[in-house]
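In keeping with the milestone schedule agreed at the kick-off meeting, the structural modelling team has produced records for the first pair of proteins. Each record is given below as a sequence line and a C-alpha cell line. The laboratory manager (R.T.) confirmed that both were archived under the project's standard naming scheme.
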Amino acid sequence: MTRAVSACLLFLALCLLTLIAGACSGGGDNGDDNPFGIKSEVVTPAANADAIEFAPDGRLFFVEHWTGAIRVVGADGKLLADPFFTLTDVTAGIGWGLSGLAIDPSFATNHYVYALYTQLVRAGPPTVGKPVVVRLTDNNNVGTDQLVLVSNLPETDPEHPFNANGSLHFGPDGRLYFTLGDYDKAQALGPTGKPLSQDLGTPIGKMLRVNKEDGSPPPDNPFVRDPSADPRIYAYGFRGAINFTVNPKTKRIYAIDNTGLTCEGVVTIEAGANYAWPNVGTFPFNDCAIGRTQTPLGYLTQQGRRPEDFQSAPGSTGTEFISGSVYKVLGDSLVVCESGTQLLRRLVLAPPNFDKITANDVIAKNCWLDVTVGPDGLVYYANLTEIRRLPRPPESPSPSQS
C-alpha cells in the first residue's frame, strides 16, 4: 500500500471518528461566537443531510445519506411526515450513499428533481455498489416516474469502499454536473495505463457533465472527440468527490480541492483542466505547488496550521455564494462548511476576477455537511442531526429595500 493511499485511509478514519463524536454529542448549536453577531436557528431535524436544495416555490428538499430518503420541508417551514421518495436500493458508507441532489432550473414547469446515490450491486460483506444518477417528478410532494439517467459508472472496490460519489448540481449552462472521487485507489491504473484520476478512459476522480434529459455527453464537452476518453468528463485529477458551486456574477464554477490531510484549496473548475491528483509529490505533501497546473485561489487550514502541514486540512464539504444585499455585515462572499472543524466560514474574494481570498472568518458553528441559499437569500446549512439557518441581521436591508 502506498503512503498516499495510507494517508487517505487515515483521513477517512479520522472523519469517521469525528462523525461518531458529533453524533454522540448531539446536533444543537448553543450560540455562535463570531464577530458578526449572527446567531443561527434550527429549521428542521435532518439526519445526515448530505445535500440540501430549494425549489423556487420555497420548499426545502434534502437527502438522508444513510437511509436513501429524500425529504421535504414545506414553504410553511414544517417537515412533511412522509418522505418525498426513498431509494430502496441505496447502500451507504464513508464517501458513498445518497449524496447529491439538484432541482431543475425549469422546476416550475417540469417538476424534476435529480439525485446521485450509490446503488447496491452486491450485498456484503464485502458490499459493492456503484454511483447512479436518477430523475424524479414531483407530484404534490411525492416523487414519481423514477428515470435512471446515468448508471454505467464503475463499481466500488470491495477492498477500498470509500470516496466514490459526491455532489450533483446544475451548471450555469443548464447541464448537470456531478463528481466522483478516486475510489480510494490513488495509484491504481486506469484503462490507458495512468493513475485513475489522471486517466481519461475512466470517470473515476473526475467532474462529469451530462445532458439533463438523458445523461448523454453534450457535444461541447472537452474530450468528446477523444475516442479513448469518457466523453462525459469535464475536468479531472481529483482525489475527493468534491462539492462545488457557481458564482452568480461570473458564472464560473468554484470548488474545494485537497490531497487528503494537506493542501486544501479553493479552485475554479475549467473545462478540460487537470487538478493534479495523484501527481502531487510524495506523502506528506509538504509542498502544495508540486504537480499543480491550476493554482488555488487560496488555501484553507485548521487554526494555527500551514497548508502544507500534515492534518492541516479542515475537510470542507458544502460551499455556496451569498449576497451582501441580504447580509450587509458579511458582504458578497463564498461560504464554506467544514466537517473537520464543524465551522461555517465566509471567504471574501477580490473583485473583479474573484480570484484571490482577502478575508476568511468564522460565521457559525456546528456546520458539518451541505450549505445552500434559499429563495429568501438566507443561508441554510446541515449538521448531523438538523438543518439550521442564519437569519437576516437587523442592519441588513431586505432585497426589496436594497
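The second protein of the pair:
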Amino acid sequence: MNYIPLPLDKIDFDRPLPINVWDPVGNLLLRKGSAIQADRPRHFFESHQACVTEADFRAWQRAYDRKIYALLRQGASLDLIGSVMMPDALQESDYAAGFEVQGGWLDLREVLHGILSLGEEARRPMDRIEGIQDKVRSLLKTDADESLFILFQGLADTTLGYCATHALLCAVVCELTAQKLNLPEVIRALLVRAALLMNIGMAKEQDVLARQKAKPDELQQALIGSHPQKSVAILRGFGLTDEDVLDIVAWHHEPDETLGLSRNLECRRILRVADRFVARMAPRSTRTALSGMGAAKSMVTHASGEEARVGSAMATAVGFYPPGTYVKLANGEVAVSVRRGFRANTPMVVSIVDNLGVAMSSYIAKDTRDPQFTIRAPVNFERVRQQINAARILKAVPKPDHWT
C-alpha cells in the first residue's frame, strides 16, 4: 500500500475528514467521517507521521481542485484561493481510476489515436483520456524540449496517425503558451483536455486529409465546419460533463468572441491559434508546409489584437525554430533543432548534412549564438531527405542547465 503524508496545513480541524488517516505501517489513526478532536491535537498526527492512501489522496486532490476551479471561475482573489482548505466531502467520480499509460510519446499517441479514430464507438474512454492527460503533463514536465522534438518529428510522418499527433502537439503548445501567459494550473488542465479531444468529431477524416493529394471536397469542407459541435456531442456521449471543456471544444474554430462562455475566452484563443500553428507546419500533398519561423510569423502578422498577443506568446514559448524542425546554418550545414535557446531564435542544434550535402556520420551539438553557426534560414520537412537517429541526437545535446 502506498501512502501520502496527511496535508495538515490544509486541513480544517473542526470539520470531519472524508477519508481514513493511517500511520506509515497501516495502523488506523482516524476513521473516515471523524474530525480531529482536541484530545488528539496536531502534534499527535505529526509524531505518528499521519498519512492517507494514495487512492484516497488522489480523490481528495480532485475534490480540492474542483473547489479551486470554482473559485477561479467566480473571480475570487488569490489570497482567498490560497486559504482554501481540503474539502470534507468527496464524490464517487473523484475515485474514477485513471488508465496509466506506459512508455513515452509514441505509446501515448497510439492510445490516443485509438480513442479518436473510434469516436462515438469508443467504449468507456474517460479513464484512458484522464490517463493520457496525466501522461502528457508528466512527459512535458520531465523534458519539454524532448517532447517538442519527438512530436514535431512525428508531424511529418502521416503513416503514424496524424489526428493523434496533431492533438498531442496542440496540447503541448497550449500548455507551454498558457504557462507563458500565467494561466493557473487548473485552467491549463482544461485547455490541455480540450486540445486532446477537439477534433474527435473528424479524426478519421483528418487522417485521410493528411494523406490525400486533392483539396477537401464539399463533404469534407462541411465536416470541417461542423466537427466542433459533433465533437461536443461525442464527448457528452462519453459522459464528459465539464461545461468549460465542452465550451472550449465547441468554439475552438470560431473567431466571434461573443459566442460561448466568456470565462473561457483566453483558452479558446490559445487553442484556436495553436490549432492553426500546428496545421500550417504539417506537410500536405496539396501545399508546402510552413517552417516553424513561417508559422510563427503568420501567427503574429496575420492576426491582430488579442490573437496577435497570444501568437507572440506562443512563438516565444516554443521558439522560432522549435525542437524537431530543421534549419540551415551560416556554414552551409543543415541541422535539426534539439533544444530551445535563451532566445526564440537561438536554439541548440545538431548538424546532419555538411555544406557539400553529405550526411554526417557523427552528431555534435552546436550553439546558434556562435556566429559561425548562426541560423541562415529554416528548412521545410519536405526538403530533408536524411534519416536521423533521434535517440543519438537527443543524447548529443545536454539539457539547458548543463550549458551556458
